[in-house]
Amino acid sequence: MAILPDADSELLADIEFVQEDDGRVTARHLASGVASFGDTEAEALRQLADALDSHFGNGEEIDDPQAYLEERDIDVEIDEQPTEYDTETISLTASADSDTQTITPALIAAVARRETDEDIDCFVGRHGLDGLAAALEYADDYVEGTVNHRIAARELDLSPLEAEIVLQALEPVVTKYDFNTT
């Protein structure tokens, strides 16, 4: 456990306290940039002292993590090898009226990019999620080189410029997700 500095300590002069919106207090050591938080300034300072001990290498070395945790009645099993998990692909389909749309991980990722990509956001605003799903299919073909932006524009009923913009905006999504398995 870290030792708290005296109230008149020079270290306290280098501490900044910030009252967060959620009511917690953040204590930040200005010289190192190390920060921690607590419900009160005193608790934040105690947490910061521990963090500074670790930051400056004053903590104790743990030779046997499993034994260390067991001494403290913490029930955690530590494996040396990374754990592998098997998952099954899910199929999620949304139906409205007579239209059916399969929700793929790529479509979810593309919709999430609306927050950071103005081109995708504008496209969805103009053509909706169905338009985005269709553009995503053509973006996969575009990345594979089987179609160009003019073919996609004709099939999606877009101008060639709009097709090129959305295909390029969707390229990072389709390179991350394999459409043959989703």
Give structural notes.
The protein has 182 residues and is an alpha+beta fold. It folds into two domains: 50 residues; 85 residues, no CATH class. The chain has a three-stranded antiparallel β-sheet with strand order 1-2-3, with helices on one face. A two-stranded antiparallel sheet has the order 4-5. Strand 2 and strand 3 form a beta hairpin. Helix 3 packs antiparallel against helix 4 and helix 3 crosses helix 6. The two termini are 50 Å apart. The N terminus is likely disordered.
The total count of helices amounts to 6
| Most strands sheet | 3 strands, antiparallel
| Cross-sheet strand order for the largest sheet | 1-2-3
Structural class: alpha+beta
- What's the mean pLDDT score? 81
Distance between the termini: 50 Å
Q: Name the overall outline.
A: elongated
Strand content: 5-15%
The figure for the number of domains is: 2
Residue runs with pLDDT of under 50 for 5 or more positions: 1-8
Evaluate the radius of gyration. Answer: 27 Å
Task: Give helix and strand order, one letter per element, not per position.
Answer: EEEHHEEHHHH
Number of strands: 5
Fraction of helical residues: 40-55%
